[in-house]
Amino acid sequence: MSGNAPKISVVIPHYRQEKYLIDALFSVAAQSFHPDEVIVVDDASGGDMPRLPEKLKSQLNLKWVSLDRNRGVAAARNRGIMEAQGSFLAFLDADDLWTPLHLENFVRCFKKHPQIRFYSAGSVLFRRNPHPIRQKNRVSCYKDNYFKRAVRNAMVCNPSSVILHRLSLGEADFFDENLIVFEDIDMWIRLGRKHLMYFSDTPSVKIRLDTPGSLSKDTGKYNEDLLRYFFDKHLKDISTRDERRFVHLNILGILLMYKFYGRKEPAFLREYLDTALLSPYEKFKYHLPAPVFRWLRRIRFYFR
User: Fold this and answer.
1) Which positions ≥6 away from 238 have C-beta within 8 Å?
2) What single-letter DSSP state applies at residue 194?
3) What is the number of other CB atoms lying within 10 angstroms of the CB of residue 280?
4) Kind plus residue range of the DSSP H or E element containing 199
5) Are the C-beta atoms of 8 and 39 separated by less than 8 Å?
6) What was the pLDDT predicted at 104?
7) Within this chain, do residues 90 and 204 fall inside the same structural domain, yes or no?
8) What b/e readout covers 117-130, taking b as 16+ CB neighbours within 10 angstroms?
9) How far apart are CA 77 and CA 186, in angstroms?
């Protein structure tokens, strides 16, 4: 693609994901629209840069940055943002993959909507080997209120699907390094208050489930101070019903996660939750006894 195509910097935070990182880089090298640079930020993994195949080195304008101490994924992404030269920043976690048309789909959207600041692609989940995704020649680009869209589809935004204009990041003050979880949702909330989200419903991102060390599966990382900090930060700034429902659905999601893993949740979460904002089905899940909820969830996962 030529013409007014934007300059794109790819930012990949990396912490002890050597097993998957090379696959992620190959998925970037396979893009039909090539990024201007790829920045891998090693969050003090404790080793040297992995030996990369010569094919990758020749195809990618690759920059490797190492942090002097382990500071978390928010800090790693922020360092990548500061190093980047492109007008747009495409994020990819080291254990995820892009399909070959991921960046091209974004560029098509940008050419129709040059005012774009906040974009997200469709994504699919996988555990071991990802299934092929059928690529479409014609891709639609929609725009909507982030909160309204995220309530309908929780997967509408994740770090590996999002591409942002660097000016929008300046307005949002980068990723919050106080958060070791929710740092991505925190960013999307702040961006969603300032910009419409443009999105493609065509999947071009493959999200790996159950990666060893995944914070999303470790409720021990969700300590009370962190949860209170996150929800206090966003409950006080709510200005629309869509925002309020979105934030309260996240509170419900955390409560259900504690229920599923059989752990006692912080009491203040139940105090914060406004059940009047929940649908009958959401209230049903909320009030289910923990053993019944866990059994139903396992049945659902088994038949996926």
Assistant:
1) 244, 247
2) T
3) 6
4) strand 197-208
5) no
6) 95
7) yes
8) bbbbbbbeeeeeeb
9) 14
Residues 160 and 138 in one domain: yes
pTM of the full structure: 0.91
Could you list the residue range(s) of the whole structural domain that residue 233 is in?
218-302
Q: Rounded to whole angstroms, how far apart are CA atoms 135 and 125? A: 16
Number of folded domains that form the chain: 2
Instruction: Determine contact, residues 277/147, Cβ cutoff 8 Å.
Output: no
Tell the residue number behind the tokens 């999601």, with chain if given.
Answer: 253
The answer to whether position 213 is within a domain reads no
Angle at Cα 41 formed by Cα 35 and Cα 42, nearest 5°? 145
Burial of 289 (0-12, 13-18, 19+ CB in 10 A): exposed
| Per-residue CA distances from 97 to 73, 122, 245, 262 (Å) | 17, 12, 31, 32
Q: Are 175 and 187 in contact (CB under 8 A)?
A: yes
Measured over the CA atoms of residue 102, residue 73, residue 69 and residue 19, the dihedral's sign is negative
What average pLDDT does this structure show over 177-204? 93
Task: Give φ, ψ of 299 to 5 degrees.
Answer: -60, -40
Q: What is the pLDDT of residue 137?
A: 62
Q: Check: CB of residue 142 under 8 Å from CB of residue 149.
A: no
What would the two tokens of residue 147 be?
Answer: 């909160």
